[in-house]
Write a structure and sequence with these properties.
three-stranded antiparallel sheet; alpha+beta; seven-stranded antiparallel sheet; 325 residues; Aminoglycoside 3'-phosphotransferase, Chain: A, domain 2; Phosphorylase Kinase, domain 1; 45% helix; single chain
Length: 325
Amino acid sequence: MQRDLSTNSGASVENELSQFLAERYGLSAASLTPAPRGFFGETWRVEASGGPYLLKLDRWAYHRPVFRRGLLAAQRLLSSGLEFLAPLVRGLGGELSFPFRDGDLALFGFVEGVHTEDYPLGELFCRLARVYRVEAGDLPLPREDFSPRALRHFEALTASLDRTTPDGALALSLFGEHAPFLAHVRERLLLFSQACRRGDPGPIVLTHGDAGGNCIVGPDRFTVIDWDEAMLAPPERDAWFFMHRGRQTREIEEALARGGFPYVLRPERFAFYCYASVFYYLGEFLEALACGDEDQKPAIREKLSAFFSSWVLTQLSAADRLPPP
């Protein structure tokens, strides 16, 4: 439901945002409409001159630095002429983001279309091929070294859980129930981590990290959004989710070649990212439970509980078929 700012009174977040947009962006917002949010971003559609715009507010303490780094990556790609990202709107002083309340706020051009995973895979990887050709080595982004850091982070978070709290009790119960599964994934991750670190590092490029689930498809535009998890890494970091099917692996390689970045995807890297993702996502749930608002926690608990029977099993079954390196 659209909220008309001219009729609101009091210190509502809408009024605060309206005043903020006027002061920092020079925009006179006629209305703000809550937009569908992702896991992290609280989002609003802003109707104003030159718009519409999408306002994104990241209030997760541990994720805010990630959000700011992602804006730097997106700006580099936009300034390199890539037109399939949502335009970033700078503040009056050239800023990419601002602190707002207890979060970080950024403004984008609004992208019309459907947020979907139903699209030809080649459409995405032809675009990512162009991303991989952008010089990005000086960006302040983490760099892949194939170490099992997701595992180490998960283990540190697990060691700090308090069994007397509802969230700690739930997590430790789940991890105990699935201890053989986690031990198997841990062992395989360490094997493939060593194999990838021994091998030729290959090209290290700017990767998205979750491009497959962050596409908006419209009648005349295909947009890749949410570059929060941008990282300097090999292309497998974007491709691993699809590599459990040989047909999709070939489709990605053909699309990369059409996009000017010929590359042969490596199965040991698929396995590394597949196993590492288990600990990465579990770590994200634990981080979110530690800093999320109480009204967000039921959904996070539900996602954590469902994780062990989720999509990850399909990819893991393919990785398990690979012989030990």
